[in-house]
Amino acid sequence: MPSSLGAAALLLALLLALLASSSPFAHASTPAHARSASGRGYLAVPVDTVQRPRREAKAKGKRADQAYESQLENQDFFYATDVNIGSPPQRVTVLVDTGSSELWVNPDCSTALTTAQSQQCVGFGRYDPDRSRTPPAGPFGEEDINYGDPSDQSTQTSVSIRYYRDTVSLGQARIANQTFGVVSASKGQSQGILGLAPSLKGGVDGEKPYSLVLNTMAAQGVIASRVFSLDLRRAGAEQGAVIYGGVDRSKFVGRLERRPIVRGVQGEYRLAVELSSVGVTLPSRTPSSRTRSFAVEGDDANVMLDSGTTVSRMHSNVALPILEALGARDDGEGYYRVPCSMARARGSVDFGFGAKTIRVPLSEFVLDLKSSASTCYLGLVLTTDQQILGDSVLRAGYFVFDWDNEAVHIAQAANCGKPDIVPVGSGPDAVPRATGNCREDDARPTGTARASRSCPTIDPSCKTGAAVTQTDGPGPSGIADGGQGDDSAGPRVEAARWMPFAVAAASLAVAYGGGVGVVW
User: Fold this and answer.
1) pTM assigned to the model
2) Cα–Cα distance measured from residue 220 to residue 216, given in angstroms and rounded to the nearest whole number
3) Active-site annotation, residues
4) pLDDT for 417-438, tens place per residue?
5) By the 8 A CB rule, do 44 and 38 touch?
6) Nearest by Cα to 231 from 507, 417, 466
7) Among 195, 249, 263, which residue's Cα sits nearest to residue 489?
8) Which residues contact 290 (CB under 8 A, 6 or more apart)?
9) Which of 166, 234, 254, 455 pairs with 91 at a CA distance of 20 to 30 A?
10) Active site at which residues (predicted)?
């Protein structure tokens, strides 16, 4: 965890750099122009990005086998999507988070660490139950939710929420009587969160778990089963996608590999899987590349797949072979430097999941802060707690999360043309063993590092951060529809210099912030 003034400055530099390199958020004042795509058995409904103009949408009749697509935006800091709450709809931008389970809105923008962060928070919109004609129910309970990596205090944030029930829409998909949280107090959060992880622990005032968003979508026939696909794409992309109830074959290479969901290292509920190997592939002077691979066993194999965390956090047994193979050097503050020329090498950091290996191009894994002409950083830090594969890894893969069958389907991400969405049905083999339309060449990057500018001088007022999400405590087994309580996996503030390696994902936008959410 950064402790020196220099570390703080570098860390803080990232935020200003990303803010400087991105367009101002126009979401609060720009009218929406959504666009929809329809096909056999699905309805893909884009959710507009925070920065881009919206297109007109055509609503199609609902069917139980529809797939609902939400467009994501790559804001370098977090993946966000728009949700509309109440009648008439009140638009709110929230972070899409596979590391936590609850939907909540209205963080206290006055607790943001900088004026820029506070302004951005306000631009994300707010929900006012008094303006809804549904009418809403609530408040009828309250909870405190803590986020962050227990081994790193700089990532820890919290919110206190009161529960309401109202109509919630994602794209053209409307779900009635959805329970969600409205913040009464928050610390270190600058945007709401749409949690997409399952949970059995917690509920309203600790009572019976309530129906989470994905569960309600299935129960009301919006989708056939509790399944969604995550497509973050490359760091240079502006949009990705989350598809509820469907799989897009135009966004991956080869066949989807099914892996069972496992409990976290303390037995708690997470979207976690077993990692079988890590490796590094580097170019050589011969026509072929050379690969070094290392087996992963025991607790070191347990990794959470968390779209709300910017960089990946691994145990030393897993991370050190990667750092050594890349010749990375510890900067004394827990971050690892490499020559910027590495981002131009046609190599990769490789993560094995059984028979499937996800290769993360070095151009995606190396961060160029522009603070030095020759020094860049890796999207990897150490942790002694739950391991997390964050956006620095997830954007290289295509992930289909199946709550009903407690499985994750994995393939190498790519982008090869028009959407080709296959709706997911129900039952033990609901997710099709689909083969992607893309070729290996479609997954290859252009070979440039993700660039950010750092603060020009060591200035304590210049602040940056990175998102980190993770659940705090153990919970029961089995995937149900319950809300999360005090120890839910949620936004973790990582007051680090890590400018997010976040990429575009439909319905999601990357936020600069801490952990599962963003801490600013």
Assistant:
1) 0.78
2) 6
3) 97, 306
4) 888 999 999 999 999 889 999 9
5) yes
6) 507
7) 195
8) 281, 282, 284
9) 234
10) 97, 306
